[in-house]
């Protein structure tokens, strides 16, 4: 199993990236927050999870091993495949997932695109005893530089991330408008925090 890759970022999209490791380009599916922190030409290390299917081999990349563990744990619930698990860790940090399951916070779980109330109930039942393995504290999240924030690059990154999760361009822009005040109130707020806030605003509609 490929558990980690270190190489040069060749390309970063909304939910994918290409990593050059020793002359081999690996395509990885990543969370929007992770993709937003990648820069072409920069060296990066990603925790990875390899999914083998009869007709496909898919590699997923994560900012750290805690996020990867949450991704793999989520798939142990029936009805949760890699795509939905990636959406879960895009919306909820490992700690947030643990708290949501342990407190039976269905509203928090249904904020994830693709999870309805019945699905959330099933996740709570099936993962209640398993989420104790997830970390208690949220891992530090990379921050956007002030120059990038000044140019409002965060808006494009958050919008792309939301659209990558299935929201329309109109909904994504509306969500960006809803969280724009956070940039003014907290200049060092990161894209990951903005993305989660935007998803929460969409869930309340």
UniProtKB/TrEMBL annotation:
Ranges where the record places region Domain III: 157-205
Keywords noted in UniProt: Cytoplasm, DNA damage, DNA recombination, DNA repair, DNA-binding
Cytoplasm in keyword set: yes
Locations listed in the record: Cytoplasm
Residues covered by the Helix-hairpin-helix DNA-binding motif class domain: 72-91, 107-126
Pfam families tied to this protein: HHH_5, RuvA_C, RuvA_N
Predominant cellular place of this UniProt entry's protein: cytoplasm
Domain comment as written in the entry: Has three domains with a flexible linker between the domains II and III and assumes an 'L' shape. Domain III is highly mobile and contacts RuvB.
Biological function: The RuvA-RuvB-RuvC complex processes Holliday junction (HJ) DNA during genetic recombination and DNA repair, while the RuvA-RuvB complex plays an important role in the rescue of blocked DNA replication forks via replication fork reversal (RFR). RuvA specifically binds to HJ cruciform DNA, conferring on it an open structure. The RuvB hexamer acts as an ATP-dependent pump, pulling dsDNA into and through the RuvAB complex. HJ branch migration allows RuvC to scan DNA until it finds its consensus sequence, where it cleaves and resolves the cruciform DNA.
Family: Belongs to the RuvA family.
The protein's assembly and partners: Homotetramer. Forms an RuvA(8)-RuvB(12)-Holliday junction (HJ) complex. HJ DNA is sandwiched between 2 RuvA tetramers; dsDNA enters through RuvA and exits via RuvB. An RuvB hexamer assembles on each DNA strand where it exits the tetramer. Each RuvB hexamer is contacted by two RuvA subunits (via domain III) on 2 adjacent RuvB subunits; this complex drives branch migration. In the full resolvosome a probable DNA-RuvA(4)-RuvB(12)-RuvC(2) complex forms which resolves the HJ.
Entry protein name: Holliday junction branch migration complex subunit RuvA
């Amino acid at each position: 199993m490929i558990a980690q890759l270190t190489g040069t970022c060749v390309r970063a999209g909304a939910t994918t990236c290409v990593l050059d490791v020793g002359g081999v380009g690996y395509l990885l599916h990543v969370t929007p927050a992770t993709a937003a922190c990648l820069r072409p030409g920069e060296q990066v290390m990603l925790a990875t999870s390899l999914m083998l299917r009869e007709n496909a081999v898919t590699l997923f990349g994560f900012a750290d091993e805690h996020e990867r563990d949450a991704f793999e744990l989520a798939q142990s619930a029936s009805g949760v495949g890699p795509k939905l698990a990636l959406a879960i860790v895009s919306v909820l940090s490992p700690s947030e997932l643990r708290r949501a399951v342990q407190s039976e916070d269905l509203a928090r779980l249904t904020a994830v695109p693709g999870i309805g109330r019945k699905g959330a109930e099933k996740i709570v039942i099936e993962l209640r005893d398993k989420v104790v393995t997830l970390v208690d504290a949220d891992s530090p999240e990379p921050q956007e530089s002030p120059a990038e924030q000044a140019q409002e690059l965060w808006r494009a990154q958050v919008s792309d991330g939301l659209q990558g999760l299935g929201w329309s361009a109109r909904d994504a822009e509306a969500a960006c408008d809803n969280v724009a005040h956070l940039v003014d109130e907290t200049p060092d707020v990161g894209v990951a925090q903005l993305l989660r806030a935007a998803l929460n605003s969409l869930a309340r509609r």
